[in-house]
Records
---
Amino acid sequence: MILSLDFSSETPIYLQIRNQVLLAIAGGKLKPGEKLPAIRTLANEAGVNMMTVNKAYQLLKEEGIISIDRRSGAFVSLSRDSKADVLARLSKELELIVSEAKVKGISKAEMRELFNRLLEGMEEEK
Amino acid sequence: MILSLDFSSETPIYLQIRNQVLLAIAGGKLKPGEKLPAIRTLANEAGVNMMTVNKAYQLLKEEGIISIDRRSGAFVSLSRDSKADVLARLSKELELIVSEAKVKGISKAEMRELFNRLLEGMEEEK
DNA sequence: TCCCCTGTATTATGCATTATAATACAGGTA
DNA sequence: TACCTGTATTATAATGCATAATACAGGGGA
């Protein structure tokens, strides 16, 4: 697992880690059931504190994206919650992005193109 | 201007204010050139500190969404920056949302439908 | 002129979050 | 036994968020 962290970013380190794990899973680089690095290992590789990685893992666990076995470590384990809840949450985030796009003069066509391009990175669940 | 703030939200108050102003503009409730409430007025109405509203206005100003006249106050003033920069920024935010959708089992069709519904709230710029 | 309206600035306080360091512990595995 | 997991604790430090109480600069209107 290779992390690229920006220590001068306004995004907290633990969130950057969480985001990159999420992207790796969505991109198919990490598959369900696959093991994540041990928190000490990842912390050493990334040059951050053990507890910072731990915080990222705890967040992913709360989000139902990984499970943690106290003996063997963390692994990808997707629990799907209520579709309505997920859609409601994503809708609020999307609404802000769409609003930013509008006030910045991005057209509907441009937004649709961008969105479709990103969607294509989503292989359907089988 | 009516604000609905959630003081127990993890989203900072100044950000909630910024978001609601943005949504009001994108939704056509606040038009370019239109005056925003004075920071003291809005602070009193919302029951928050003057400097919290000021922080939200400063952020909106940095983002090129409003202008502030030290004499007469703040008003909507959209400066459009480089389209490439805006798209790059929005793309990163969208990427995370799309990833979350995927791992949570939302289909492409469902995402497209949600996105299109939100896009319809965008009247084209004339 | 005087008062009121703007945004802005300053100083102090309090609390939560983020991140680190250095250990220590529980418990399964080889 | 030695080593690997995650977890917990305590301390420290920097930063972010929010409030309070003033104070200031400066334009506008009565």
---
Amino acid sequence: MIDEIARPDDVRRQNRRLALTALRRHGLLSRTDIVAQTGLSPSTVSAITTSLISEGIIIEAREGDLGSNRRGRPQIALVLNPDVASVVTVELALNFVHAVLYDYKGQVVAEISERVPTLEMSADALFQSIFAMLDSLIDKRPSGTGPLMHISMGVQGVTDATGATMLWSPITPDTNIAFGKVLSRRYGVDASVANDCNMIAEALRWTDPEHYRENFAAILLSHGIGMGLYLKGKPFVGAHSSAAEFGHMLHIPKGALCRCGRRGCIEAYASDYAILRTISGENESTPPPQDIDPSTFAAAAGRARTGNGDEGAAFRKAGQAIGAGLRSLFSLIDPVPVALVGPGAGVFDLMEEELRGVISGNSGWGATQDLSIRCYPDEHPLIVQGCLMTSLLHLDTQIFAPGDLKDPQLKHAL
Amino acid sequence: MIDEIARPDDVRRQNRRLALTALRRHGLLSRTDIVAQTGLSPSTVSAITTSLISEGIIIEAREGDLGSNRRGRPQIALVLNPDVASVVTVELALNFVHAVLYDYKGQVVAEISERVPTLEMSADALFQSIFAMLDSLIDKRPSGTGPLMHISMGVQGVTDATGATMLWSPITPDTNIAFGKVLSRRYGVDASVANDCNMIAEALRWTDPEHYRENFAAILLSHGIGMGLYLKGKPFVGAHSSAAEFGHMLHIPKGALCRCGRRGCIEAYASDYAILRTISGENESTPPPQDIDPSTFAAAAGRARTGNGDEGAAFRKAGQAIGAGLRSLFSLIDPVPVALVGPGAGVFDLMEEELRGVISGNSGWGATQDLSIRCYPDEHPLIVQGCLMTSLLHLDTQIFAPGDLKDPQLKHAL
DNA sequence: CTCTTTTATTTCGAGGCTCGAAAAAAATAG
DNA sequence: CTATTTTTTTCGAGCCTCGAAATAAAAGAG
């Protein structure tokens, strides 16, 4: 907050953050490299690394091949200590839970995934399933693994702006499930829950920082349509919820029936169920099914590519809806690079022409001709990667930066 | 930025900011009050106020009626020193420039306004007019007035995200006019240019902080339709431009012709020219005029209220367009309180029912039934007020907070 | 009219922090 | 083995905030 009071040790906190995120980004860095990366003075870097080492957060990597046989004292490579902590990511989707345990360097330690009938489960039953999976992951941990220090969930659904609660989701009948609080209490660590699209955006920013840096949108085209947005280098969240509900922007007033109960949403034209509904020739008011078989969707796309029938038209209609949404979005935030993610990204060839057609026609100040759109048909690795980065960055910037835990190893003797 | 290095004196900078903004908000505050407001320790507040006084930025107000005859040592009231600096606001609209000189406490020192044919002027001619007005304001300054230290412009048009340039505006044929740089160079002070809607939002936040605090939207309904947005207590700007071009979100694909050259924008249905075009029965593709006489618009509204003809339908159509835009906007940022500003706010009674009708129908997580909409038919005082606050807050947080100018009086001997 | 009580503000020392300069450490080059 | 080069640490100056104690300035009590 802007109206927050500053204390002398906040300075050290911030500069520790800089050093840690530099190490996170580059993996292997000497003190001199950190000086170059951060702009801090050698004295300060020395002080910071000394305390980070004494706290076990980073370690000196002997045999680090840092620009070897040069003249002068050789640099000592520093690395994040993989065993100072571990984190768990949980991906929650329709009828499906996937959890992974990572060390502090981001290497997989253990993994588990299960099919569970989320639609028929109470929140409590869902928690029991998740608990069992996490317990087993934690049991599986080899000795030497650091204590669990953060849990990050990515869910299909709307979460609150603070990452504490899942407000609503199509995958379960319950609402307002406080995943953050419950997991945090049970495992004695910080836990956050976020929209899967925001996790995808986080992952893209991490895997391709050249392209997805300050401003970009990641749009998930699947059973629903969601968006993760970065503006000015920061994740965009709404006033109260995770928001950025791209799929529920209004495309056609009084138009097709959406899964959310309203009419005319983009999702009601561009999601998998909407496309299949259009192809089937059903009425636009036919309530959508709760699940779509991926193979059915793929088959429809196949027919659209080869045949010359109605299938192609349905995809073009979807392209128009997405294009219209982007045009409105770009009016609000300026044009930004777009990543299309999920099954819908695999059929982008069927939508691209219409999609770009709707957007183009620049308005005098914001040209969109050279709009970058990239496709990532498989969303799951990105969601997990995003959760991982969320957890690790939380440790880097919130837990380890303060430097007020004398011995993090003991904080939560799991 | 998050990746910025912190130094020990940044701490003092930030805490000076806190003290100054507390004084700005409350006007008259003792050191003890500042302690209560900011949470800083008495020692720190003492140190900060001492240096602020020695720099002439604040002064002790003798005869300050602070909770008088209580027991104990009386509190000494502190106030911003009105004469430490002055600022100029410039409101630039179609055929109209209005400039005001204020002191550091925000009191009017001198004022001037002129009609100038902006549509037929080159950028250079426009600058000459503005220069002449500002020169005369500065001449008019009574002795004792502090040196000019900031200029803030509010313009009808699109500006860049940094407040340096007006990228495009309907009021002048030129584009990319670097108001910020040119004014800054000529007067030797910082100068910024912002979209008028953002200034309106800034003003509302200042005049009614109870209602417009963290999240709200100010929508200007006039010849064009713009928006100023606050999210999480901070002004929203786009990736590159001031953005938030609410009026150019897409309402009806391939719909009515907008002034921006594209089709189907909200503005093409809800601006004054659009409403009059609908009433006239003209084709939706008729190019809009560059200016609308306010009395013509008012007369149409009058007929819509009394008669039962086509006029009412045109306003209802406008209400639908705005409602559709808000529904999409709320999908992206969650529902927030809305302020409608300008001539269109004066005819809200003709649009309200349709507008709310389109928005309602909650989506399961974000209810909009109790959506707050307030109307402010006169936009001009708000624009000026917003510029004023922009200037003063710039001084408070950017210029005076660092405390590195030993004698601000001498910085720019005007 | 003086002394006590109460409240506001300042002073002072402890403990942070960063930084520049100098010192120490650890290699290569000759 | 010594000189050179580069990296890292050490040390002192100069910021900062804060708590505790000291000082200042009023009202109330006797």
---
Amino acid sequence: MDPVEPQDDELLVRVPLRTPGRGTAAPDRDRTEDPRVLRSRAAIVEAATGLFLERGYVDTSVDDIAARAAVSKRTVYNNFTDKERLFTDIVLGVTATAERFAAELAAALADVDDVSGALHDLAREHLASVTRPQVVRLRRLISAESGRFPDLAREYHRRAPERVIVALAGALAGLGGRGLLRVPDPRRAAEHLAFLVVGATLDRVMFEGEAAVPPAAELEALARDGVEVFLSAYTPA
Amino acid sequence: MDPVEPQDDELLVRVPLRTPGRGTAAPDRDRTEDPRVLRSRAAIVEAATGLFLERGYVDTSVDDIAARAAVSKRTVYNNFTDKERLFTDIVLGVTATAERFAAELAAALADVDDVSGALHDLAREHLASVTRPQVVRLRRLISAESGRFPDLAREYHRRAPERVIVALAGALAGLGGRGLLRVPDPRRAAEHLAFLVVGATLDRVMFEGEAAVPPAAELEALARDGVEVFLSAYTPA
DNA sequence: CCGTCTGGGTACTGTCCAGTGTAGTACCGA
DNA sequence: TCGGTACTACACTGGACAGTACCCAGACGG
């Protein structure tokens, strides 16, 4: 499988390769990283990502992470200054996925002619992306810890859901400029489209967990109905 | 102030008066409650509600609660079997507010003639209610703890946001029956209306906290634009 | 005035956990 | 062969915190 296309049960995690927190003294030594370090770090990140998403931040101990990564606790602390840094590094790494998705969204709508068809495709894709189990867990995790990590939550929101809205607004403005839609306020239009399609599902899933994700047929209907309402309001007279 | 109308900075809390967890042996003794007990219990509930909403479940210790309630820890445990029970009792007590609100919503839309005006009023009220700081904190608190208390989260969602949707669906169906709206699927229509109006704000607030609540003028615009889109899709031809 | 009963206060126990210190081991390049 | 570096195992510290044992005070009946 293509390592750049995330599957339902995984998230791409990009963690900075330089060990943070010891840049004070290191004179940029050997740039061929020790394979032992790479191996340990990858195992730790993978284990921690899974555990954080399954149990949350507080209910995951560093001992748990070390155990699942088959690594000693000391090694965890050799690679990450503390539990908080490990957490934030992972979360910010994960948002890379969302950023890429936002860019694709905008591009897909750039120069279409069949507005209705394109919006239906976009809605389906958006809904599918947002209801992927790991994405659901990530949303819940971050909002759950937004009290402990307010900056992180803001950053995630800015980079992921917000960026999707902004990209969508740009695309809709483009369609408006070509006379294919009537878009007085692109930002508002993007929000309307997005939440017509994913709003109700997102809300339910936030409280009931990924088990509450509707079946595929219902997702299809949600996308269709949402776009239909959007078009009846935003189609030029 | 009327004790049944919640203000911005408070939530009505209804907690069962019988001490839970000792019903096994008590043969329904004196029903004139000891005033000391009533006083303690009220202080504990108030303190715990505030602390849970401010800091969350894990970051609030029973010692903190006892201190703010100006009561000993022992007294807390005399009135509530454990921290979990205290938490769930409080959360379920708070949902009483939301339940009442849902009923009012449905009633307000029952037999209006000016559909547009009524929907605008409803949208304004819904948005105002959902962005009240304490409501925002409650949403975040419950979804944050939905991993630890899945049943509680489900119950809250069923009683509060879900009940609003159901009531709204009923009201819209009524308007549809009178030919004032075209409502093929009342449930879907209710979701569309609700999330057109509150979706984007709800999402932002979930990550950025109650500080991200838009100013009154923007709330007004959100309600107006959302209803406008809804009407252009659901007005009979 | 006395015994008893109940709620409340203080001090404690047991546990969990983040983070550290240390001593030893495997591997790698010179 | 030697020195350096990362990893392991393990014990340990310090602190937080849920829940409890035990005693005191005051109300109430006799």
